[in-house]
């Protein structure tokens, strides 16, 4: 793929390293450029790194009406050698195409996605925030642009990548545990639906439940399956818990759970953490009983944004609350976060070659 570079002039773009003095938050800051490419006549065309700014879109663009829109979320890190490394980007690339299949959208060949993201990061190097715990949050997305009001899959799309220089997700260093609302009223996905896709529509459909969560003083919803029997996930993160014997358990992936890359990575890290990590079907009633009896000692969520979020308590729609152990962030959660961020930031070995250096291509 031959990428066109339509860069801003030197005086209009960043020329010195980005050194924010305050925590810049997550996903708020943009950079000078974005990557864009169009799909028409059965082909991806006109790949370009161009000024960050509005995209032209027809009022009849099918994404706006029928919701063919998917995205990814990945991270890159600046290592002590001053080079930038993506973390498991190949998994995000693969998953974008899984989502595309679920929503009847065209695939973006893996090599094209990789080249697009690497080219954009390469020209935006100076935007990497020089701040403790910072990263580049990478947001690739694809949506239907064809101007047509028939209900069918579109034949024109845009694939776009933007980068958000981001600060530590939890500025206090991941020290507080959140509350989840366990909902029997709202559901995120049903078998045969789109739950396994990272689709915009899944998020639109979760906002009502998120509003309910707020009313219960909860940060997010823990979704159950449509029969209210099994634990699924928290909507922006997968769920996990730790038993008294140290075993860490993640619900078995089904077509109603988004297959988190963080979960998959944690599954691989068991031997480095010195504990057993496995997947099981978790019945909510057993879970509640085990939290109450102290058999379950830690719980939380996995996702790229926060890596791991500890859950200190669960609230139910009848206002019952159950607390996990002392309600604080537990030792396994802390250790996991430490190991994960040490690998990402190049502070320890990368045992599975999850990091890939961004080549210096643009002169
Ligand atoms: C993105 C996402 C996650 C987390 O997945 P990661 O690959 O670990 O970032 C979990 N659940 C849903 C519904 C998601 O969209």
From TrEMBL:
Cofactor(s) required for function per UniProt: pyridoxal 5'-phosphate
Pfam families documented for this protein: Aminotran_4
Pathway: Amino-acid biosynthesis; L-isoleucine biosynthesis; L-isoleucine from 2-oxobutanoate: step 4/4; Amino-acid biosynthesis; L-valine biosynthesis; L-valine from pyruvate: step 4/4; Amino-acid biosynthesis; L-leucine biosynthesis; L-leucine from 3-methyl-2-oxobutanoate: step 4/4
One MF term in the entry's GO annotations: branched-chain-amino-acid transaminase activity
The EC number(s) this enzyme carries: 2.6.1.42
Catalysis performed (reactions): L-leucine + 2-oxoglutarate = 4-methyl-2-oxopentanoate + L-glutamate; L-isoleucine + 2-oxoglutarate = (S)-3-methyl-2-oxopentanoate + L-glutamate; L-valine + 2-oxoglutarate = 3-methyl-2-oxobutanoate + L-glutamate
CDD domains: BCAT_beta_family
Residue ranges, compositional bias (Polar residues): 8-22
GO terms classed as biological process: isoleucine biosynthetic process; L-leucine biosynthetic process; L-valine biosynthetic process
NCBIfam families linked to this entry: ilvE_II, PRK13357.1
PANTHER family, sorted: BRANCHED-CHAIN-AMINO-ACID AMINOTRANSFERASE, SUBGROUP IIII AMINOTRANSFERASE
Family label: Belongs to the class-IV pyridoxal-phosphate-dependent aminotransferase family.
Known function: Acts on leucine, isoleucine and valine.
Protein name: Branched-chain-amino-acid aminotransferase
The organism of origin for this protein: Pseudoalteromonas ulvae
Taxonomic lineage of the native organism: Bacteria, Pseudomonadati, Pseudomonadota, Gammaproteobacteria, Alteromonadales
């Amino acid at each position: 793929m031959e990428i066109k570079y339509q860069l801003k002039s030197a005086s209009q773009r960043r020329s010195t390293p980005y050194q924010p003095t305050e925590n810049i938050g997550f996903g708020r800051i943009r950079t000078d450029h974005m990557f864009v490419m169009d799909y028409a006549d059965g082909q991806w065309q006109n790949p370009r790194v161009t000024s960050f700014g509005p995209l032209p879109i027809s009022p009849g663009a099918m994404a706006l009406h029928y919701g063919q829109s998917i995205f990814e979320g990945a991270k890159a890190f600046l290592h002590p050698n001053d080079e930038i490394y993506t973390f498991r980007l190949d998994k995000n690339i693969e998953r974008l195409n899984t989502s595309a299949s679920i929503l009847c959208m065209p695939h973006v060949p893996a090599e094209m996605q990789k080249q697009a993201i690497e080219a954009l990061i390469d020209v935006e190097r100076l935007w990497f925030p020089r701040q403790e715990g910072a990263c580049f949050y990478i947001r690739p997305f694809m949506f239907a642009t064809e101007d047509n009001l028939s209900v069918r899959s579109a034949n024109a799309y845009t694939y776009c990548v933007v980068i958000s220089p981001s600060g530590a997700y939890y500025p206090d260093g991941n020290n507080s545990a959140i509350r989840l609302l366990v909902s029997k009223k709202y559901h995120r996905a049903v078998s045969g639906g789109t739950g396994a896709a990272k689709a915009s529509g899944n998020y639109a459909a979760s906002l009502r439940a998120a509003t309910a969560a707020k009313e219960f003083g909860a940060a997010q919803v823990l979704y159950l399956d449509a029969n209210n029997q099994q634990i699924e996930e928290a909507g922006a993160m997968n769920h996990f818990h730790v038993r008294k014997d140290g075993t860490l358990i993640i619900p078995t992936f089904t077509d109603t759970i988004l297959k988190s890359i963080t979960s998959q990575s944690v599954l691989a890290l068991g031997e480095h953490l010195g504990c057993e990590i496995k997947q099981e079907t978790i019945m909510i009633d057993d879970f509640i009983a085990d939290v109450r009896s102290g058999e379950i000692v830690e719980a939380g969520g996995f996702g790229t944004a926060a890596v791991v979020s500890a859950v200190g308590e669960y609230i139910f729609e009848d206002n019952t609350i159950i607390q996990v152990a002392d309600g604080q962030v537990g030792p396994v959660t802390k250790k996991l976060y430490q190991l994960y961020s040490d690998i990402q930031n190049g502070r320890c070995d990368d045992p599975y070659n999850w990091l890939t250096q961004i080549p210096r291509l643009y002169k």
